[in-house]
């Protein structure tokens, strides 16, 4: 049986590799060019944390309703689907990274004090996360493991630091960004990791051996 710390590490790694192309990061990058990065990340993290609780609850409800074999098959299929989405959404060569995903023009970013940016960030993340690719990962993990608190903490330990780096980077350097092709290969690398996760789940049921701590 996988321990609490192991599940935390698995959730951390899964969320970390799920972040390329995640539209929430585009929102954070865009808002960070208008508001204080720390406030933007605080609002986004609150929304993401709330969504993660709901996703874990859904995954654990499935855990009690379906046999383990079916859940593992569904989890492997979700990992493959996520890898396919990453490959499909990989930016073309020469695509600029200075983008907010087209979400920011539709919200009122306003201007109001030291906490300006919290409400826009929370609102867009709360609505924009619905149906996002990263929810596939969380639901799949929660359907496979019972340690919901480890999944939540592991994912937050990935999303918050990455969001902070993203926000401060775009706050500082957005005006200098030019076409950058390296991001394309990050998408492909992340897709390969999710395919490896899926293969390990299949391998465990096929020959009874798991090479990864999944």
Word description of this protein:
With 214 residues, the chain is an all-alpha fold. The chain contains 8 helices and no strands. The chain has helices spanning 4-18, 23-32, 37-65, 68-89, 118-128, 133-144, 148-173, 182-207. The longest helix is centred in the N-terminal third of the chain and has 29 residues, at 37-65.
Summarize the structure.
Helix content is 71%, strand content 0%. It has eight helices and no strands.
Strands, helices and their partners?
Elements: H1 4-18, H2 23-32, H3 37-65, H4 68-89, H5 118-128, H6 133-144, H7 148-173, H8 182-207
Helix pairs in contact: 1-6, 1-7, 2-3, 2-5, 2-7, 3-5, 3-6, 3-7, 4-6, 4-8
Question: Which features would summarize this protein structure in a list?
Answer:
mainly alpha, 8 helices, single chain
Please, what is the average pLDDT? 75
**What oligomeric assembly is this protein in?**
single chain
Stretches where pLDDT is under 50 for at least 5 consecutive residues are 97-111
Instruction: Tell me how many strands there are.
Output: 0
- What is the overall shape? globular
β-sheet strand percentage: under 5%
Rounded to the nearest angstrom, the radius of gyration is: 18 Å
Number of helices: 8
Q: Percent of residues in helical segments?
A: over 70%
Q: Tell me about the biggest sheet?
A: none
| Straight-line N-to-C gap | 10 Å
Helix-strand string: HHHHHHHH
Q: Structural class of the helices, strands and pairings? A: mainly alpha
